[in-house]
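In the current project phase, the collection of sequences with tokenised folds has grown. A sample record is quoted in full directly below:
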Amino acid sequence: MPDPAPPGRWRLLSSRTILADQWLRIDAERLETPQGVIIDPWYLARGTSWACALASVPDGRVIMVEQYRRGLDAVVLELPAGMIDDGEEPAVAARRELREESGYEADAEGIALGCWSAEPAHNTVRAHGFVFRVGATAGALTLDTAEHLHALLFTHEQMEELIRTGRFCHGVQIAYWYAARARKLL
């Protein structure tokens, strides 16, 4: 059997925005594949990329935040994270979100874990993960008006249990956890 031609980029023929607000834009696109197949509509979600902080206190415990997530209609545990402001570097955003959501201040610049996409077929949003070390004491939280959360500390063993039980269920953040562990950054 001959090797198929390598994949190529699809060609955008037209696009119309069907939803746009401060959080999200969804476009309905008409596309053509390299093989000449027309796909109409193809929905593409455009949002703001975000950054997260995988941070540990001096005794090695990891900082998590507990908050409600509408998509799951549940209170879940996540790493401190948030949207990257216009013109802001991802590492700066991660460090800012760590301070705002947990009260902990990073001791130094973060170590980048990568820029990843949670769903590249239909979504342009990118995630940026960083490892930080923090001091032993947290300051006050600086939350956005829609945020209601609190920070908790977990050992590495507890983190693994949170993943096994689904209490920590954010796929991209779990991938950052394992990437940091593989690189022995925690």
